[in-house]
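Methods: holo model generation. Sequences were used as deposited, without trimming of termini or removal of tags, and paired with ligand SMILES retrieved from the corresponding compound records. Each pair was processed once, and we did not select among multiple samples. The sequence and S-adenosylmethionine SMILES for this entry were:
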Amino acid sequence: MRKISSETVRADFNDPLAVVHYTRAAHFLGLWESERILIERHFPDRTAPLLEAGCGAGRASVGLWQQGYTNLTAFDFAEELLDQARSLAANRGVKNEITFLSADATDLTKCHPLGDTLFSGALFLFNGLMQIPGRANRQMALRELHRVCASGAPLLVTTHDRDYSPVERAMWRLETLRWERGDQDPRLVEFGDRYFADEHGRTFMHLPDRAEILADLAATGWTHEFDAMRAEIARESDAVRDFSDECRFWVARK
Ligand SMILES: C[S@@+](CC[C@H](N)C(=O)[O-])C[C@H]1O[C@@H](n2cnc3c(N)ncnc32)[C@H](O)[C@@H]1O
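and the model returned the structure below.
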């Protein structure tokens, strides 16, 4: 059986079920309260050039624009989602404050419109970074974001946390036994990966522990500044909690 690759993930995000799910969130949810709080805290200059990786259907980029941010570049590698992002932005009245681009986070050199812009900050929200299969590839994406950011720029990322709850820890102990016996899902790339299907389509997700992200930030040039679980930052609405499980927010600085 073939391992999950970035092509698998891209196809899953271009699938109509996923497109409807993320488009609905972009239209009706917008920024989460926790995102809004951290963005205001760490990205105070609303005119500074910011880069959003994995923008999907535009939930966060259009949300940022609604918060007054005027110099946004947002990219994704799923064309169907990008189409939805462009159309949402046009419907909401965005003029030239957001540029949507097609790009793969692991190699931004191929995205020529990015040119040699140095961004004042970068975001990879809603666990998008963790949907890149392979730790080396996730590190490549972190390195690319570091390369295109100016010195002092903040990075805001979310991930799951494998060790957060007793239930999760018990589940991952069972998964450890599966990997020790070689009984894991053969499509998975690494321990910590999950690949599942539900009414919103198929999802690949790597669930790291805290030590892994601290090590990856350090290995890619980022200085860790802050991390906390979402529930410690804000109480989200039921709609947001239905859309997305608990996650850990990370802020790092170049
Ligand atoms: C969970 S979705 C989040 C979408 C949007 N940011 C939101 O919060 O609704 C993750 C996004 O990351 C994108 N993504 C995953 N891997 C990527 C890569 N290597 N390059 C660019 N985008 C990627 C997916 O296409 C998807 O749109």
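The domain at 6-253 is CATH 3.40.50.150 (Rossmann fold).
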